[in-house]
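A favour, since you know our structure tokens better than I do. It will help me judge whether the discrete encoding reads sensibly. The space below this message is yours for that.
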Amino acid sequence: MKAAILKKYQKQSPKVVIQDVGLPKIGPHQVLLKNLAAGVNPLDLLIAQGQFKLVIPYPLPLIMGNEVVGEVIRVGSQVARFKVGERVFARMPLNKIGAFAEKVAIEESALAKVPEYLTNEEAATVPLTALTAMQAFQLMDVKKNGRLFISGGTGSFGSMAIPLAKAKGLYVITSGSERNKARVKDLGVDQFIDYRTTDYSQVLSNIDYAIDTLGGSETRKQLSILKDGGKLVSLRGMPNHDFAVRTGMPGWKRLLFGIAGWQLDRLAAKNNQHYYFMNVHEDGEQLTTVSDVLEKTRLRPKVDRCYPFAEVNDALAHVAAGHLQGKTVLTFED
């Protein structure tokens, strides 16, 4: 089978090589998938650029790809929840990614069935963004009627996080370009802020929860709008000591990330707030919950552009260019 392999880190315009590799073997709790579609994410770029090495030191060469939609073609002897022929999707396990390949071996516990109404390409937009939202909600222990701000929520993450937040009974506020206002309003947003005309930090206060998709100075601004005791999860900020402890990192990494995130931790502590950095892990149970929400809402996730597997480097370059209106997806054909 063919797979897209990263052979060296490159800070600028990283590229993978498509080459033949052996068919993966499956264990008793694993299934083998024929790949139907795979999401292409900023995370893939961070890994290829070497910016993720301290968090997870993947050995090279590495089969790339973090989320997969596939058809089950073989099941392990102890697999009980899935059978041959079913269409499933998953965020690949953190310690063994590899979605950019014609065949994928993956643990049963990471999988969920794809809602029948979704196309393969639409389904490929779901696992990483949906699990990011679900795990952020879990980390912040969100409560019904709480006020949630999602910075830059008009992209692929917001498109999935907003309806999931509404399903949890949250009041949702987001910022973005005015041209996307109607679309996110249709998803359930309660308050929209046009970032070109309004600084959200000047009009928002007493916010219970925030999900930071921007990083940099925006993380500090979002801490400023939280109430006393408020909570913020950053997807683009600095890892901190709490993150290192939660993920079981060794002492030297706890010290390193404690130093890296010290300023944000100190800023949050002034108002009894909590700053979290998170890395999204596989979770078939959570993804099944997402599938149930999708079946009820009939949400059609936004696909920005599809590329055939042979053009995987073009797909990565497209993601690197930014300004996406949804998820970039790789498609696989027989």
